[in-house]
Amino acid sequence: MMKNVRNERRWFAIGDLQTTFARFMQVLARHELLRPDGRLANDVGLVTVGDYFDFGVVDDENAHVIGREGTRIVRWLAEHPPEQTVMLLGNHDMARVQELAYESEESFRAAQHLARQVVLRPELREKFLATHPRVPTPEVALRDFAAFMVEQRTLIQRLLMDGRVGLAVVAWRDGEDLLITHAGVTTVDLANADIAATTAPVIADALNAYLTVAVERAAPAWSVDAQEPLELAPLCVFGVSGHEGGGLIYHRPADPDRDGILDRHWEMNPERVRRFDPRTLVPDLRQACGHTSHARCVKEMPRWTDVPTANAAAGFIRSLSVDGEDVRYRVGAASHAKTSLLLIDGDINRVPVSAYDILPLDGVRL
Questions:
Q1: What angle do CA 199, 204, 205 make, to 5 degrees?
Q2: What is the pLDDT, as a whole number, of residue 4?
Q3: Angstrom distance (rounded) from CA 101 to CA 150
Q4: What CATH number is attached to the domain comprising 66?
């Protein structure tokens, strides 16, 4: 309903914030979204789609430095009122309260040390899985969880208990609802969560309610500093020894018939889906998400990508349009298909600040 759409602010959505706090501020300043004191301008609202942690090359020397950058970004966002900053969660953030629920910094750095040995000596993989059974694989120890710090877990737990972060939000753009999540919503996700409706407001409310119930189960332990993983299965399944997590916040769009698929079962495993066919996006629904970079989209969907798009640089908004069996991945936010997904992860830490785009919105349903 119109009364639920906040139009008194200039609203924007920004992709995965895996970068330094200074660079994040530079992007916001370039788009003229900040006050002189470094806070968001009073007339600006911001939707962030998750993945605030882990970027660059992390080693023992810089892990805490990189880790604190993400923590600083999250704290800065949370210091604004909830009607001004809408914060969603991604797989890197959720990992802090799922796979890493029981890890100390000492135990995790030990896992990373052994993971680096596995890179050089693959025969040590079984030793890794046996020694660190709660860290799914050596690869995620060095990639998705790379800059883990206990204070990140504590921060995400607190934001979850305060209802300050969610899985989905509905924005208003070009006169229509736009469902915003970290990685997009498919009919498989709806089936897993037993959500029958297909309108953006109902889906968003149902996903956030699913999260709320899970947090209520974990909160008694969190409130006394006891560790309890956040359980969102079967909607989103966290990783276990030897198997990475999958589902709503993990999956990426991909052509199931592309060349060079290394492990189709790993990609499409119904218990922990890592890739989804764009033709399974919720029909007649306009969406936006982060999670998947331009380079990844070109690699995963080559026959649906035209030459200008394939040759374009990163940093811009892109669109994935579905019309029956016709799928198109293109540069730009324009899409006339009723089933569409705007991709707003622009590799913020890799592209020039001047080339990094954010998505303007007409308002946000709060």
A1: 105
A2: 54
A3: 9
A4: 3.60.21
Q: Could you give the angle at the alpha carbon of 197 between the alpha carbons of 195 and 199, nearest 5°?
A: 125
How much is the CA Rg of the chain, to the nearest whole Å? 20
Query: Residue 55 has which token pair?
Result: 């970027």
**Which domain covers residue 251, as residue numbers?**
2-365
Q: Which residues contact 308 (CB under 8 A, 6 or more apart)?
A: 331
| C-beta of residue 242 within 8 angstroms of C-beta of residue 175 | no
Q: What is the amino acid identity at position 180?
A: I
CA distance 37 to 41: 9
H-helix or E-strand containing 94?
helix 91-95
Q: What is the DSSP letter of 36?
A: T
Q: How far apart are CA 120 and CA 295, in angstroms?
A: 27
Burial of 220 (0-12, 13-18, 19+ CB in 10 A): exposed
- Per the structure block, which two tokens stand in for 148? 């883990």
Number of folded domains in the chain?
A: 1
| Beta carbons of 346 and 51 less than 8 angstroms apart | no
131-180 residue pLDDT tens = 999 999 999 999 999 999 999 999 999 999 999 999 999 999 998 999 99
Q: What share of the chain is helix, strand, coil (3-state, %, to 5)?
A: 35, 20, 45
Residue ranges in the chain modelled with pLDDT below 70: 1-7
C-alpha–C-alpha distance, residues 97 and 161, integer Å: 12
Neighbours of 80 (CB within 10 A): 16
- Let me know: does 151 contact 225? Beta carbons within 8 Å: no
Question: From CA 149, how far away is CA 67, in angstroms rounded?
Answer: 6
Global pTM exceeds 0.85: yes
Return the SS3 of 11. strand
Residue 363 token pair? 């308002």
**362: number of Cβ within 10 Å:** 16
Using alpha carbons only, what angle is made at residue 81 by residues 88 and 86, rounded to the nearest 5 degrees?
Answer: 20
Confirm if 138 and 114 have CB atoms less than 8 A apart: yes
